[in-house]
């Protein structure tokens, strides 16, 4: 809708005195399509134009009479209801959707900007549980959405590969571990040892000292400690990458916390030079009391570094070495204070990228109402969830379409898609209570429903036995008349309007860092296409209508496939 809104705004600008961007923002969609395609509330204009809203609406209606894109402009109380000229608008939208979906979605607003997106970031030697799902798939979708919007994006997996937990895992392995058992299933067995360490430490607190001892050995480069630590990393990454492959998730860099070990001294020196570092109870901190925040600890009283030190070093590396001017952190909401402190310290250091750093928080993942905790062993393995979803999809395919080609590949796409869509259709800031019966529900507003709609459009196009290059909407062939025999009916027009809103969905999803906007858009587009499909014969229509409806089907298939890609899902051609 971006182009037609701009056209309307340009026509109204001289009358209202408002700039075109403001007018575009004021245009909204009426609650009832019978009122029109767009509406402009005139109440805000009453003060500046010194007229009542009804009079303003009448004046603006007269100003739009000569605008070819507008079929009708009707005052209604304090609103101006606008109906678009259907055929020329549909001609443009459908034909662009048929050949260039990027142009329909994007105006490349952020071309020239480079973003570093930090997401997923699981802990080494701990399982990839459903609790990691949100950061992983929200982050992957944000990467894709930002690229569509023109950004050059670097995806970074900031692995949790450093800290006292590794001293504990090393100590647990040396006390109770068996090499053959661990090698058979490294991540799960190491996780069992980690949980056992905490259980035993509750009875024998001296174990905590052993954990600290082995982490100090690791920091000091002890050969045994470093060798075990590297083994834990290698085996964990093998398991993680299998899960990422199932989720269609990829990263440009795997840069764990340990990567910044030799980069933190420079940060400390810079803070000292800027006179930002002060002593507080033996620790070195940046005092943030003037900003109603607790101090940001840079070095603990024992001289060891902390998360903030590494994140400051990571921010500098991402800007100075990777060239990113925008820093995005897809991390749970419980880390909100940490990032507020981090960004404030970057600002006090005079970093130019401080005001382009963004914490993209999200709600907590629960399992059947209970909070997940790796320390207590309360974890649900994501690989198990995905396997169960794929198995469920296979059963449904065997029941409904046993002769389907590539059944295993389709089942994987549908099963994984069910899990992904179940999460992404929810506003990211909300908590998600993970329940198998919801994730694996293949009815209603689900991933399988959206994927099936795409497959339905593919089926229509296959059965047409026509080349896609011939499927174009030709306004001249339709007579160019919204009132003629070949005029678009309401279900066709509703589909065109949904296709036209692809750009607004992308812009809002990027601006809000929220893939749920795009997920909800796919549902709206599917609803519009399925109404169109049920209300209009396509292949059995007479020639002109058949070509038009095939063009609409092609545009829908292309736009839906692109929207699914942007939220990290496959678009099967058959189901």
From TrEMBL:
Cross-referenced HAMAP family:
Arg_tRNA_synth
Q: What is the phylogenetic placement of the source species in the record? A: Bacteria, Bacillati, Bacillota, Bacilli, Bacillales
Q: What subcellular compartments does it reside in? A: Cytoplasm
What's the protein name? Arginine--tRNA ligase
Residue interval(s) of motif 'HIGH' region:
122-132
Its chief place of residence is: cytoplasm
* Entry keyword set: Aminoacyl-tRNA synthetase, ATP-binding, Cytoplasm, Ligase, Nucleotide-binding, Protein biosynthesis
- EC number(s): the record gives 6.1.1.19
Q: Which residues cross the membrane?
A: none
- Give the catalytic activity: tRNA(Arg) + L-arginine + ATP = L-arginyl-tRNA(Arg) + AMP + diphosphate
List, alphabetically, the InterPro entries matched: Arg-tRNA-ligase, Arg-tRNA-synth_N, Arg-tRNA-synth_N_sf, ArgRS_core, DALR_anticod-bd, Rossmann-like_a/b/a_fold, tRNAsynth_Ia_anticodon-bd
Subunit-level organization:
Monomer.
Superkingdom classification of source? Bacteria
Which species is this UniProt entry from? Alicyclobacillus fastidiosus
Ranges for domain Arginyl tRNA synthetase N-terminal come to 2-84
This entry's Gene Ontology molecular function terms read: arginine-tRNA ligase activity
CDD domains listed in its UniProt record: Anticodon_Ia_Arg (cd07956), ArgRS_core (cd00671)
Where the record annotates domain DALR anticodon binding, the positions are: 450-575
* UniProt enzyme class: ligase
Enumerate the SUPFAM superfamilies for this protein.
Anticodon-binding domain of a subclass of class I aminoacyl-tRNA synthetases, Arginyl-tRNA synthetase (ArgRS), N-terminal 'additional' domain, Nucleotidylyl transferase
Q: Give the family, as the similarity comment puts it.
A: Belongs to the class-I aminoacyl-tRNA synthetase family.
